[in-house]
Each structure stands twice: as structure tokens, then as C-alpha cells.
Design brief:
Length: 557
């Protein structure tokens, strides 16, 4: 593992210049800060699912589930809980065992927590097939330590530590019914002082089967002598927030529902974390599942009444609030510039931008950052032997969708190997259904196609909606994603938003032609739809292949 840690350290150092240049990035498609002392929700219109947040002095840090995407456990930084930028990732490579031949859709990194203790950052998460892991770092930007399996156990998920005043350390967690055969319960075990190993069996401290079916995602806190466990219940798109409290770490716990949709348009509201400000305010960050866009992050005001939290706005005074769509920004003592997580990329650096993730464990042979040429070179990489569609491909370089409407454009120069056929590159909108603009070298020469694959997660195969022979190896591709403002009635609770995408291309970068059919955007396995790039070749044994040079990738209105 020394190789991994060194590689990430070197990568972090090399990325510093570009990182600083991107700290003040401002999106052209979604800005939560309204510039008048207020903000609008979601503060992050992107799939940072199962978010957790902590404060260190005047700085806030957030991480979220990354599942099969690498680098995993992206870390975001803010000064005011509204304006955020990506500053690193805690997992540069997948935790063993790994297989870079295909993605492990929906597996791996579930519901992390981020904490700061004795000068170090800690991130805990559950791998549903292995157990609870931990990594730590002196700085949120990294380098992060080799992950440690703290509590082995199939189905142990949604982990969060608590350092008590007496020096003892506890871990709260839930169980994944798909692996453990039990769900809707919350459990606690004790860890060693290093927080690196469970030293007691887990004890179930709350059973939600009757009142709070599907309770999960617990976060652990202590205040005024009470132990508090915040957790969602009732299902991802349809649930509510529950808080447990007890004077004893192992209970018994009493409970109260403190946040629900009410008459608001914010369904869920699901899993999140409590954080305070240096000025004494309390806030809660959680997600809202809207389908194709994934799980969007909201910021809610919070206050304590009789040692119970009330989240959002409690209009009827019953102690249970409902989400706000706009609100006065947190009082953090200062005003800070507007910034948003990074999106567009001109590829001027020598490392990948922090917004990018591969769809599986990272392989260094997939790409070359040629900052001196202002290009990203993607090498064609063999697909698996049993390839059916891009769902099976690991070397998809993707990023989150970041607004209800956005236009993705890119300029690609394709240089396939002349003596082989079947190398492909292009722009993809990826989910359990996907669509793409694909350049492919065929026996007739280069061809542009618009392809679509329905039920890719179930073995579906691509269909071709349009084709065009190409004379030039350089092309401009565009995907316009937009919200129809309609809901998908067949989705759970009827909350999924109907999202569409139109494709077009240009030969000169000026005049674009509509191409193919409109595509209904679908979410991936536990993640929102992503957009990005790929370069593949057939599963044949050859000692080299072609490549695609990407000049830029822009996210605009």
C-alpha cells in the first residue's frame, strides 16, 4: 500500500496549482448563493448522496457516498455552508479485492461520515459486502491513510463514530437488508482508542420496524449530556428525519420525528448531518432523491427546543419542521465569494480535475493529461470479453449532472489504429439507460452514430438511432439535458423528475445539427445520471491501440 499512498501524495502535490485556480469556480448553470444574503435549495444540485458534514474552526467539510466511482469519497470545502468547492478525494483507488475489468455498480462506498478529532480528519463508511472501513488524514485535501477494516461483517453500513468525554470511542451503524437479512435497526459497538478496530460486538439500540420502517443512515452526536442519533426512515424518496436521544450510550433511546416533507415540494427529506457555526447557529444538511439527477443536497436551519432539534420551519409548532426552499444564509461572521463545485475543464493541467471520476477502479493506462497541449488523451482500452454495452465498461470518465438544465459540449479528435476496426470514442449520458454520440472506425471509415441502450443494467444492448460518415477526425459533440417539469408516476412516491436529453454535432464548432432521437435520462445504480467521455476497443489481444484527444469539456446553459 505504500505505492498507493505515495502515488496519491504525489498526485495531490501536482494538482495544487490547478486546485487553487478552481477554488473560485462559478457554475454557469446552478448557483445557490443568491447574492443578497439568502440562498436557494438545493445548495448542491448534484448527486452528493448520503452527505455528512463537519466544521473545523471556520471551515466546513462534506463527503458523500461514491459507490463504485473512483476517486471515491470526494471531499468538498466551504466557508459558509452555501458555497462549495471540491478539494480532494479520500480513496484514489478501490479497496481490495478489486477488478478493473468492470464496474461494481451500486457497491463499495456507502453512506460515509466525516469527523475531525485531535488534529486529524476521519472518514468512516460501510462496504455492504465487507464491513466498516476508516481512513484518516491530517488535512482534508489528503493524503489519506490506507483504509482499515474496522468492523468486518456483511451488511454493516452507514457508519459514524463518536469520541466520548471519557476517551471511549463508539461506532453507530445500520444493516443492509440485502446482505445482512435484517434492516430497520440501529446498532452501536465500541472501538479501540485509535478508532481502528471494533472491540465489542454490536448491540441493537433501536428497532424501527413498527414506527420507522427502513431506518438507516445514523449520525452520532453528544450534547448537554444526551447522546443523539439522527437518522432517516420511511424510504429514500418518501421518508422523514428521526432523532433518538438517551443519557446512556446504549439506551434506552426515546425518539421524535423532527423533519418531514409536510406541504413543501422537498420529498424525503433524507439522510444528512448536523453542524454548527462559530456564531452559535445550528444547521442540517440532507439530500432529496429526484431520480435522474440523483440525490441533491439541501441546507436547513435548525434550532434546539427542550433538548430536541427542530429542523426546517415548524409552521404549526408541533416540533417537526418542513424543508425550506430559500432562506437567509448562515451567519458565519464573514462574507465569502460565490463558488461552486468544478464542472467545465479546458484540460490545461497535468492531472485530472477533481470533478472527474472513473466508473471503476482507476487504471493509470487509461489516460494522459497533456497540459502543455491543453488536451486530455484517452487511450482505447479493451472491453470485457462478455461485453454487452457501456454498462460493462470501467474506463468511463464521468462527472455529476449539476443543474436541472445544462448543455454539455466537447471537442474530440479521434485517432484510431488503422489496421483494426471497432475502436470507439464519444460523449455519453450514463445511467441504467444511456445514450451517446459515438465516433467509430469501421470498414467504411469513421462514422458518427447516436446510440441508445435501454435497461443496460439488465443486459440490454445498444440500438443505433442515426449514423453519419465522417471525413474529418475532429468533431464537436453536444448534449442538452433539461427538466420537463413533469413527474414519473411509476416511480416510488411519484417523485422522480422526467428529464430529457437532445443531441447534436458540429463539424466547425459553430453550426450544430440535431442528431438522433431525444433520450429520457435515467439514474444509475444508487447514483444520478452522469455525463462524460470514453474510448474503447474490442476485446482483442493487441499490443497497442488508438486514442482520442479531448480539447475541452464545457458545462453551460
Amino acid at each position: 500500500m505504500k505505492k498507493t499512498i505515495f502515488a496519491f501524495t504525489l498526485c495531490s502535490l501536482m494538482a495544487l496549482p490547478s486546485l487553487h485556480a478552481q477554488e473560485n469556480y462559478v457554475s454557469k448553470v446552478w448557483v445557490a448563493d443568491q447574492g443578497n444574503g439568502t440562498y436557494k435549495n438545493p445548495v448542491l444540485y448534484a448527486d452528493y448522496s448520503d452527505p455528512d458534514v463537519c466544521r473545523v474552526g471556520e471551515d466546513y467539510y462534506l463527503t458523500s457516498s461514491s459507490f463504485n466511482c473512483i476517486p471515491g469519497l470526494q471531499v468538498l470545502h466551504s466557508k459558509d455552508l452555501v458555497n462549495w468547492s471540491i478539494v480532494g478525494a479520500a480513496l484514489p483507488y478501490a479497496v481490495p479485492p478489486v477488478d478493473d475489468e468492470r464496474p461494481e455498480h451500486g457497491n463499495r462506498v456507502w453512506a460515509p461520515s466525516i469527523r475531525h478529532h485531535n488534529g486529524e480528519f476521519y472518514i468512516f463508511w460501510g462496504d455492504p459486502d465487507q464491513g466498516a472501513f476508516m481512513t484518516k488524514a491530517p488535512k482534508a485535501e489528503g493524503p489519506w491513510s490506507e483504509p482499515v477494516l474496522v468492523k468486518p461483517g456483511k451488511g454493516v453500513i452507514d457508519t459514524c463514530p463518536l469520541w466520548d468525554e471519557d476517551g471511549r470511542v463508539y461506532l453507530v451503524h445500520a444493516y443492509a437488508g440485502s446482505r445482512a437479512g435484517l434492516k430497520s435497526v440501529i446498532a452501536i459497538c465500541e472501538l479501540n482508542k485509535e478508532a481502528s478496530k471494533a472491540i465489542t460486538p454490536s448491540r441493537i439500540v433501536f428497532d424501527g420496524h413498527e414506527a420507522h420502517q427502513t431506518c438507516e443512515g445514523p449520525k452520532f452526536y453528544k450534547r448537554n449530556g444526551y447522546y443523539y442519533i439522527f437518522h432517516p426512515a420511511g424510504g429514500v424518496p418518501t421518508g422523514w428525519q428521526v432523532v433518538l436521544r438517551s443519557k446512556n450510550v446504549y439506551g434506552p433511546y426515546e425518539w421524535k420525528t423532527v423533519l418531514a416533507q409536510g406541504k413543501s415540494s422537498v420529498n424525503g427529506p433524507h439522510q444528512g448531518g448536523w453542524v454548527d457555526t462559530p456564531t452559535g447557529e445550528d444547521w442540517f444538511m440532507h439530500f432529496q432523491d429526484v431520480g435522474a439527477y440523483g440525490r441533491l443536497v439541501h441546507l436547513q436551519p435548525m434550532k434546539w427546543i427542550n433538548d430536541w432539534p427542530v429542523i426546517g420551519v415548524d409552521k404549526d409548532g408541533d416540533g417537526c419542521g418542513e424543508p425550506v426552499l430559500t432562506h437567509k444564509k448562515p451567519n458565519v461572521g464573514k462574507n465569502y465569494p460565490i463558488c461552486t463545485p468544478q464542472e467545465s475543464d479546458e484540460f490545461d493541467g497535468y492531472t485530472l480535475g477533481l470533478q472527474w471520476q472513473w466508473h471503476a477502479n482507476m487504471n493509470e493506462k487509461w489516460y494522459y493529461c497533456a497540459g502543455d497541449q491543453s488536451i486530455l488523451r484517452l487511450y482505447s482500452y479493451p472491453v470485457p470479453n462478455d461485453y454487452k454495452s457501456l454498462w460493462d465498461v470501467s474506463n468511463l470518465l464521468l462527472q455529476k449532472t449539476t443543474a436541472p438544465s445544462q448543455t454539455i459540449s466537447t471537442k474530440i479528435t479521434f485517432k484510431p489504429t488503422d489496421k483494426y476496426q471497432g475502436e470507439r470514442t464519444g460523449l455519453v449520458v450514463m445511467g441504467m439507460d444511456y445514450a451517446a454520440l459515438v465516433m467509430e472506425n469501421t470498414k467504411e471509415g469513421l462514422v458518427l452514430s447516436q446510440v441508445e441502450c435501454k435497461k443496460a443494467d439488465r443486459g440490454g444492448k445498444e440500438t443505433v438511432n442515426a449514423t453519419l460518415p465522417l471525413q474529418d477526425k475532429t468533431i464537436y459533440l453536444k448534449a442538452k439535458i433539461y427538466n420537463t417539469n413533469k413527474k414519473i408516476k411509476g416511480s416510488e412516491g411519484g417523485h422522480d423528475q422526467l428529464v430529457m436529453c437532445d443531441f447534436s454535432y458540429s463539424l466547425d464548432g459553430k453550426k450544430y445539427q440535431s442528431f438522433g432521437k431525444p433520450f429520457q435520462v435515467k439514474e444509475g445504480k444508487w447514483i444520478g445520471a452522469k455525463t462524460g467521455l470514453f474510448c474503447t476497443r474490442p476485446a482483442i489481444v493487441i499490443n497497442d491501440g488508438g486514442w482520442a484527444d479531448v480539447d475541452w469539456y464545457r458545462v453551460e446553459k
